[in-house]
Specification:
The protein is mainly α. Helices cover about 50% and strands about 5% of the residues. The chain has one domain. A hairpin with a 2-residue loop joins strand 1 and strand 2. It starts with 7 loop residues before the first strand and ends in a 15-residue tail after the last helix.
């Protein structure tokens, strides 16, 4: 998902895009975005030297989740959101689940 949204592209994290996407949902000056701005920078240290794209994405995502825990959705809500998200609209290469 991080690659599909271009937050991670060719093994590089685009923090600015990540923060921008969060600001679309939460507002540019929200507490979530302010914290994500600093946490996303800190989490870059956790992936330094990693070359495997799956390990890099997983490690970065884990770092974000661990450090943004107070903003996490309850697991049941998160699972429901993932089931309903229109991933087919994010990339033209993904199949439309309605077909």
């Amino acid at each position: 998902m991080l690659e599909q949204s271009d937050v991670i592209n060719h093994g590089k994290v685009n923090r600015e895009l990540l923060v921008h996407l969060a600001s679309l949902v939460n507002g540019k000056k929200s507490r979530v975005v302010r914290k994500l701005n600093s946490v996303s920078r800190m989490c870059l240290d956790s992936i330094e030297g990693l070359s495997d794209r799956c390990q890099l994405a997983s490690t970065y995502n884990d770092c974000l989740n661990e450090n943004m825990i107070e903003f996490a959705f309850p697991l049941d809500l998160a699972e429901e959101a993932v089931r309903k998200m229109p991933f087919h609209l994010m990339s033209p290469n993904l199949p439309d689940p309605r077909v």
